[in-house]
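Usage

Read records sequentially. Each one opens with the input sequence:
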Amino acid sequence: MRKRFAISCGILSIISSTIGAQEANDLDPVTITATMNPAKISQTGRNIIVIKGDRFAQLPVHSIDELLRYIPGVEIQARGPMGSQSDITLRGGTFQQVLVIVDGVRVNDPNTGHFTTYIPIAPGEIDRIEVLKGASSAIYGSDAVGGVVNIVTKTFARRGEKKMQVATQLTGGEYSFYGANAGLYSSNGKTSFGGGVLSNNTTGQMQRGIRGFVNANTVSASVGHQLNDNWNFSFRSAYDIRKFAAQNFYTSSVADTAQETVSTFWNQLQIVRNATNNTLRLQLGYKHLQDSFAFNSRTPSNQNTTELWQALVTNDRKLGAKTSITPGLQFINKKISSNDRGNHTVNQAAAFVILNQQFGEHFFTAPSARLEWNERAGWDLIPQVNLSYKKGQLQLRGSAGKTIRDADFTERYNNYNRSSVASGQRLGNPSLETE
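and closes with the structure output:
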């Protein structure tokens, strides 16, 4: 069983206010990604970059993956334009070693890491994007090897302020291109509503026997409500469908004139109970993804359906002015039904704990540990420790931890149901172990 052990450290003497860094009037913003509870970036011991959601309207981008390209240290490997398909890499890892979450709920699809950027949310709902670089499996489990991309939305952020925002953007161009990006957010301080639409469509340039077309459409809506002084809930539902030319996305064959359609139905619920020095949070998520891939007009298409069920419970407890602890439990169920990969199910469960401790005025430490169970791989203990020292504009930070990644269904079962496989096609390996 192969494991990865990651160590990172750095010295930050001057904090710049570039596009990927913090705004000039907020050089040390509060983040929730590093420790699952609010903490200033300087106290986490981690390399974190925050970009505000309104940047989407200020930059020449058409999709969320194109926006991520502007964040320092994030590499976006695009196969096609306007969100048709892209891979994310961080810290020299692979596209399968980056975890994407929306308001704490995992987006990564069980079928393949190529679907990670199919993020089922309209840009108008985004409050900010937090990118955590480096090992994070002790908190988030499998896939958080190179880092974590956490999309925080306006409805789930719940600032309790009265606000009304409406934004609309229409675009058009050559090759019958037309696009729309519209968003709405309204809050009266107690109840909030958010929603949006993102659409990109083009016939595309002529390729080898097929046009490079894209039809990508996302619609999402969310609601949040403060029930009383202690209880609040937030709910989101979204639908995302992308149909595009996928010529040579996965092969170099001259017979490849592929087309692909990927649709995602997404639902998530968050229930929070706030008490004195204690916050209990329950997060539930359900993702249903349908993938149809046709290599060319002469071959039958691959039909893949995946489901991702997940539940996460955390309890943030403040033990003193300089000490807090966050224990948590997580359960994940992954399923696939495919005429190519077969029918398979994997269950995962984990218990973890995060300690945040301040020593004096300038030194912070955040050790964490996760005990993960996978019905295929068994038990795994994942430790990590983060250290930070900040005095004035001098920042020292260090992090050491273990990371893991479980193989997806494509790696294990590609061409699993085929009676014969053509030369050059890849076969999955059902015996792959956790790395």
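Summary fields computed downstream for this record:
- Confidence is low (pLDDT under 50) at residues 1-25.
- The chain has one domain: 4-413.
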